[in-house]
Amino acid sequence: MSESDDEKRPERSTPPSSRPHGNRPARSGADKRPFTPRRDSNSRPDRGDKGGRSDRGRPERANSDRGGRAPGGKPNERRLWTKDGKPARNDAAASRFERPPLTEEELRARELRSVRTRHDDPEIPDDVTPRDLDKVARNELKTLNKENADEVARHLVMTARLIDEQPELAHEHAVSASRRAGRIAVVRETLAITAYRTGDFALALRELRTFRRISGSNEQLALMIDSERGLGRPEKALEVGRSVERGTLSVATQVGVAIAMSGARLDLGQPEAALAELEIPQLDPDVAYSYSPELFDAYAEVLEELGHDEESALWRDRAARADLALNGDDDTIEVIALEDDDDTADVDDEEDVDGTVPGQ
User: Fold this and answer.
1) End-to-end CA distance of the chain
2) pLDDT surpassing 60 at residue 280
3) Which residues pair with residue 288 across a beta bridge?
């Protein structure tokens, strides 16, 4: 036995993870309000350099990059190497071999992967047809083949039917639609809404971001703010709300954002700031829009928080009257119908679509 074989190799040791996994600190402040939703990678810890491994005492191997002079290095310079012969990631010279960052297209493709690898589609009654779906939503499904588009449409119809009474089942239908049509904006938007209604705010936020990436629309900004609130991050919610210019949003979305921002202020124990968020031109007690009841009610809630009970009761009454005017018969408030600016043509159900995605 050679002398080098008698040398004892150093024992391997695995350093503890350098990435702590402690619990987040509890939020403090008795004046903070709990959030109430509105109805409407790799996780391994860093293992470091696998400390303890050394080449000392080992004979040099012929035709190997593990010893001697490393490619592009200095004589007798030793580096950590992977099985492919490239420097390990913690090597200072490894940048030449690092995988380039993902492109925008690759990032989008990653986000558009199926929501679940395994999922059993919920049953759909025979009386549910694709024509039951809103024409604008059906128009978005034109990029799918007809059979798939019809099935997705039926799942979306079931989602709309069940969202108020059975949100969990509605969410299952939305998941089924997403697995069949993950590149369609209205499908990812629907999945986000059902996730929010079932209390899965992390999934809702992820799907809302995907919806925005696909569609380029910020019309679900209010729901993004409320999802951040649901995750216990009111400061982040305010940051999200300030990230978009209000004037670029539709009037109804501007109102929704104001209500969500006001709620975030209440979460932080800032009722005065919450009231200021709601004092917008749409706060008109003499005119009823589709958003007026919710806006009036939110205003009444903040007034009550500030101790203005009499004024709060007045605005709650106005909210009830606005709702009655919109859904019943009350001539004391003028009802204004919001026009739909989307003039998209209806989908011809008899048209044969090619099932391709634009740009592919």
Assistant:
1) 65
2) yes
3) 335
159 contacts 194 by C-beta, under 8 angstroms: yes
- The domain total for the chain is 2
pLDDT digits (tens, 9 = 90+) for 216-245: 999 999 999 999 999 999 999 999 999 999
C-alpha–C-alpha distance, residues 50 and 100, integer Å: 25
CATH number at 312 reads 1.25.40
How distant is the alpha carbon of residue 183 from its chain centre?
A: 15
Q: What tokens appear for 224 in the block? A: 């993004």
Residue 329 backbone dihedrals phi, psi, to 5 degrees: -140, 95
Distances (CA, A) of 336 to 85, 280, 282, 326: 70, 17, 12, 9
User: Residue 270's domain spans which residues?
Assistant: 232-340
In a domain, 347, yes or no: no
Residue 51 lies in a domain: no
Instruction: With beta carbons less than 8 A apart as the criterion, state whether 353 and 144 touch.
Output: yes
Q: What is the pLDDT of residues 169-182, one digit of tens each?
A: 999 999 999 999 99
Q: Please state the pTM of the whole predicted model.
A: 0.63
Give the length of the chain. Answer: 360
Residue 212 shares a structural domain with residue 292: no
Under a CB-based contact definition with an 8 Å cutoff, are residues 193 and 223 in contact?
A: yes
Q: Are 283 and 258 in contact (CB under 8 A)?
A: no
CA 164 remoteness from chain centre: 21
Domain boundary among 192, 217, 242: 217
Do residues 113 and 212 share a domain? Answer: yes
Neighbours of 213 (CB within 10 A): 16
Of 293, 237, 285, nearest in space to 261 by CA: 237
